[in-house]
Every structure is written in C-alpha cells, then in structure tokens.
Amino acid sequence: MSFSGPEPRRRLIGFAVAAAVLVADQVSKSWAIGLLDGPDRPTIALTPFLALVMSWNRGIAYTLLRSDGNFGRFALAGLALAAVGLLSYWLWRARGLAATLGFGCLIGGALGNASDRLAHGAVADFLYFHTPFSLGPLSNYVFNLADAAIFVGVVLLVYDAFTSREDKA
C-alpha cells in the first residue's frame, strides 16, 4: 500500500467531506435549536414549500423505531457508529471520486445524527418540506443537513454504481 499518488488524496477528500458535513450539520442544528426550540416553537416560512420548524426525532427516518428511553437512544447511536465504521472501510477502498464523496456524505450525516442522539436524546430536525399535493411521506417531511447529506451520499453511490468503468466480470 503506497501513501503517494491519487488514492490517499481521494481518501483525504472523503474524510474531509465527512468532517465538513458533520461541522455544518452541528452548527446548523445549534443555530436552529437556539432560534426555534422555545416555548412558542415558531414556524418561519422560507418559501411556499419550505419552512423552519423544530422537531425532535427519537427514531430513525419518519420516526420509525422510535425510542424514548436510554436503551433505544444508545442502541440507535451505536448502530450509527457501527455503520460509520463500515462506511469508513468502504471509503478507504473506494476507487472513484463519486463513491468517495458519497461515503464522505454518509459518514458525516451519520455522525451528525448520532451526536444529536448522544447529546440530546433525539435528532434535531428543522427543515420542513411540505406540499399541498399528495406525495406520500414527502408531502410533509422534516429533516436536517445530516439527512440531506445522507440523501446526496446515496445519490452519488448510485451514480458511481451506474458509471463505474470497472470490469464486473
């Protein structure tokens, strides 16, 4: 294993993306908590379909696996940290830039949401996407920057899977 050439640079970029996502997520959540998590819990409309609201998610996506107790809180955080370990391994082995960036986004997002669970007992969601149309669960969706980074990471990995020139045989 060589420490020169493009491979270490790609790895460094991937972990730098993870760190940037984590920092941006935590800074935005701190700001949102200070602005929105008061007794009156204001809603601030940004566009006809996007608003700022405070929502504490004690589960995973769409509050699945909701847990109000410490066991569930630490179990979900532990699961996220185990996923970070696996994603870090895959980032280390990634060959393409899209995959490297995708794994970086996933790692940073998972760390951001895990830190919320450990610090607050729940994940701070504050970006409220809503439509008057019936779009299933996306008609009303509250998320944060970590969630957005996870989505972007998945898109990048799908893109990499379809555009990779590596021989699959």
Give your account of this protein's structure.
By secondary structure, the chain is an alpha+beta fold. It contains four helices and four strands. Helix 2 packs antiparallel against helix 3 (97-120) and helix 3 runs antiparallel to helix 4 (145-163). A hairpin with a 4-residue loop joins strand 1 (44-45) and strand 2 (50-57). The protein has a four-stranded antiparallel sheet. The protein has one domain (6-163). The model is unreliable at 1-5 (pLDDT under 50). Helices cover 58% and strands 13% of the residues. It has helices spanning 6-36, 70-93, 97-120, 145-163, and strands spanning 44-45, 50-57, 123-130, 140-143.
Strand content: 5-15%
For this entry, what is the oligomeric state of its chains? single chain
* Count of DSSP strands: 4
Q: Strand order, biggest sheet? A: 1-2-3-4
Q: What's the rounded overall pLDDT mean?
A: 84
* Element pattern in H and E: HEEHHEEH
First-residue to last-residue Cα separation: 24 Å
